[in-house]
Amino acid sequence: MLFPSLRGLQAFEAAARTGSFMSAAKELSISPAAVSQLIRALETQVARKLFQRINRRAVLTEAGREILPRLSMAFDELRSASSELSGGQRRSSLVISVPPSMAMGWLSHRLPDFITIHGPVDISLRGEEDPVSFERDLIDIRLSYGRFHYREHSTEEIAVDAVFPVCTPGFLAQHGPVNTTANLLALPLIHTDWGPAASSFPSWRSWFETALLTPGRDIQRGLTANSSKAALDLALGGLGVALGQGIYSADLIEKGLLIRPVRRVLELGQPYCLTIPQRSARKTAVSAFRSWFTNECLRSIKSPSLTI
């Protein structure tokens, strides 16, 4: 059997990874028609359909999905080897995908510490909701809330967070001391709603029910944010009491920007998990980031400021 055309394999890998023949053509500096011809010739050579043409769209077949991760890993190695042979300086690279709240401040503020420890690395930081496309976007490591998003990749649980009421010292001074959990019912509350496509964020009603209190319908009044970070920003603006997550609240509490008017906590229903595709598992930068990132998450969630 003849070895499949390397150019055909390259055209297939680029088209499958980017999700379009047009993007693959730009990457390979050829025309979309040439990409299509190369892939058709490859399919003839291997006697298997790699793309199924549906309404002018090319959709990967099962055979195409099966071979793509191995091809992407092989071409990554070829690019690295070519760089070394040509005398180019080889730099580590990382594509990191996290929920939007994690990308907006929390992780971006900490990345300089990782670079100081690890050394120069090219980082693409993506703030996005699940599900993500590991192959199309070449994602190396993904943080998700919940353990069931990516069963086809290696996934590990790293931490279970909790929520608790937070507000500014000025807000509490203006509205008087909160001596009991029931006192919170009379204060402006900030709600967090992750949206219908995401896992549910604990509601104020759920939090009050842990204290054996049953709030009325007016519990839903007030401000609502669609992310944990946005809810904390509203609380920082003195607009009410939010249910803050430990991972995002710890620094703000340590600095005295937020306080906890009562100590009751409600654990989140799912753990935070890290997912790493097979093609990235052996990358030194991925291994280093995984260890550092896990420690940073646990350091926030288990901050002494949250246990006092």
What do these coordinates show?
With 308 residues, the protein is α/β, with parallel strands linked by helices. Helices cover 42% and strands 19% of the residues. The strands form three sheets. Strands 4-3-5-12-6 form a five-stranded mixed β-sheet, covered by helices on one side. A five-stranded mixed β-sheet has the order 9-8-10-7-11. Strand 3 (92-98), helix 5 and strand 4 (121-127) form a beta-alpha-beta unit. Helix 1 packs across helix 2. The chain is elongated and about 80 Å long. The mean pLDDT is 88.
Summary tags:
single chain, 308 residues, alpha/beta, five-stranded mixed beta sheet, 12 strands, 42% helix
**Over the alpha carbons, how many angstroms does the gyration radius reach?**
24 Å
Sheet with most strands: strand arrangement: 4-3-5-12-6
Q: How do the SSEs run, as a string of H and E? A: HHHEEHEHEEEEHEHEHEHEEH
Separation, N- and C-terminal Cα atoms? 69 Å
Mean of all residue-level pLDDT scores:
88
Shape: elongated
Q: What share of residues is helical?
A: 40-55%
Q: From the helix content, strand content and strand pairing, which structural class follows? A: alpha/beta
**Unreliably modeled segments:** none
Number of β-strand runs = 12
Topology of this structure?
Blueprint lengths: L5 H13 L2 H8 L3 H15 L4 E4 L2 E4 L1 H24 L6 E7 L1 H19 L2 E7 L13 E5 L8 E6 L2 E5 L2 H7 L13 E4 L11 H7 L12 E3 L2 H9 L4 E5 H9 L11 E2 L4 E5 L7 H18 L7
Parallel strand pairs: 3-4, 3-5, 8-9, 8-10
Antiparallel strand pairs: 1-2, 5-12, 6-12, 7-10, 7-11
Helix pairs in contact: 1-2, 1-3, 1-4, 2-3, 9-10
